[in-house]
Amino acid sequence: MIKLLVTGVWICGVALASVYFSAQMTSKDVDMEPAPAMFGGLETVRGEVNSIPVISSGAVQGYFLTRLSYTVDPLKTATLTVPVDDLITDALYTALVGEPVIGFPDIVSFDLDAFKALVLESLNARVGETLFHDVIVEQIDFLSKEDIRSNVQQGRSLKHHATVDAASDEPAALAE
User: Fold this and answer.
1) Domain for residue 2, yes or no?
2) Which of 15, 27, 38, 144 could bridge 62 with an S-S bond, Cβ 3.0-4.6 Å?
3) What was the pLDDT predicted at 75?
């Protein structure tokens, strides 16, 4: 009878120990590596087309046109008191007009990585913490004053030609 009692106590002890250890193992935090920055957790904010004047020798030499998108933390973005688009536009103008980092129109080469790093650094410096994680370039152009003038003149000649066609009695397809 004592053997039966000792065996019962021993089985209960083993069962309690196994339940305790299995509960401890399932409640441990599993060390998972964080998801890469481009997969989950971040949101893309598409920027507007910005036309930044290039000022050299006291005159506007042309316009630097950009359209950039940004990856941001949506939880931090929701707590901002200034709209993200306004913040981006202000930081871009401050970085590119306030500090002449790009030597247009006499540029020999353009370091895209340095440009993206400058924009990212100035945006995060403006906010005071790492809100912006990456800059995605959608468009970068430079239009000199001569390019703009030739486009305006071409537009005027085409517009004048179209009004002449519309004013004639002949169908537009036959007018020259």
Assistant:
1) no
2) 144
3) 84
Dist. CA 78–CA 88, nearest whole Å:
15
Phi, psi of 81 (to 5 degrees): -95, -20
71 and 133 Cβ atoms separated by less than 8 Å: yes
Looking only at Cα atoms, what is the longest distance across the chain? 122
- Joined together, the tokens standing for residue 163 give 């009004």
Structure tokens at 4: 């039966």
CA distance 133 to 120: 7
| Domain with 62 in it | 43-151
**How many domains are contained in the chain?**
1
Q: Would you say residue 45 has pLDDT above 70?
A: yes
pTM of the model: 0.59
